[in-house]
Amino acid sequence: xxxxxxxxxxxxxxxxxxxxxxxxxxxxxxxxxxxxxxxxxxxxxxxxxxxxxxxxxxxxxxxxxxxxxxxxxxxxxxxxxxxxxxxxxxxxxxxxxxxxxxxxx
Length: 105
Hints:
The chain is mainly alpha-helical. The chain contains six helices and no strands. It starts with a helix and ends in a 5-residue tail after the last helix.
């Protein structure tokens, strides 16, 4: 019920922004569309987080380290690493195939 109230209180633009951030956060290339600066900021932050700072999108190593030390991941990265083996055992081909489905250009 509270989620319905939250949605009801949002503009179409805000709802579209939330939709685009969710849908495009794994996009490899820049998002082009309304409010692209916000969508791309979320997309880049997700890449920085998921790669644990290997991909930094222009953010300094020290800022990445500061964020990572301030916001605990609570096992998130380990959970990501465990998905493939849990679903497909040691079949690396299947693991890579599944992972490729969540990224797009």
